Amino acid sequence: MYVTAHRVRTPHLVEGINAYLYVHGAQAWHAPPDPELDPGALVHSMLTVEDVGGNEVRSFLDIVAPNEMWWSDIRQALMQLIGAMQHQPLPWQGVVGACRFRIGMDLLLARTWQQELTHLFQACEMVHHPG
Q1: Are 3 and 21 in contact (CB under 8 A)?
Q2: Main-chain dihedrals φ then ψ at residue 124, nearest 5 degrees
C-alpha cells in the first residue's frame, strides 16, 4: 500500500489535511516501491480541503508498506527512521524494513515537526481505516 497525507492550503488560505490510500495488490517486493514510479491503485481518499488548482502543500508524509502490515509496526519503523534523521534538515526519506517513508514540511511547520508528523500519521491511519 501507499498512504500519503498532505497539509494543503488553498489560494484563499483554507487549510487542512488530505489523505489518500493506494494499494499494490498481492504482489511481493524485495524493497518497497517508489510511489513516484508505482503508486498503485487509488482506493480511498479523505479530503478536508477541496483539491483545486493552486493548492500549496505545506507538509507531507508518504508511507509505502505491505498491505497486511499492522499500523503499530509501521509506527515503529517510522520511529526508527526519525531517530536516524531528526538531527538532519527536512525533507527526510528512507527505507526501514518493509517500509519506505518520505517526510517534508515548510520551515514554519518544521519548528513543531513532532506535532505536525503526528497529525499526518493520524490522517494516514484514518484513510486506511475509514469509518
Answers
A1: yes
A2: -65, -45
C-alpha cell at 77: 519503523
pLDDT tens-digit map of 13-28: 999 999 999 998 766 6
Nearest Cα neighbor of 104 from 3, 39, 7 is: 7
Q: What is the pLDDT of residue 57?
A: 95
Residue 83 burial (10 A CB sphere; 0-12, 13-18, 19+) = exposed
Tally of residues, the chain: 131
Mean residue pLDDT across the chain? 92
**pLDDT band, very low/low/confident/very high, at 92 (cuts 50, 70, 90):** very high
Q: Where are the domains of the chain?
A: 2-128
Q: How far apart are CA 65 and CA 74, in angstroms?
A: 8
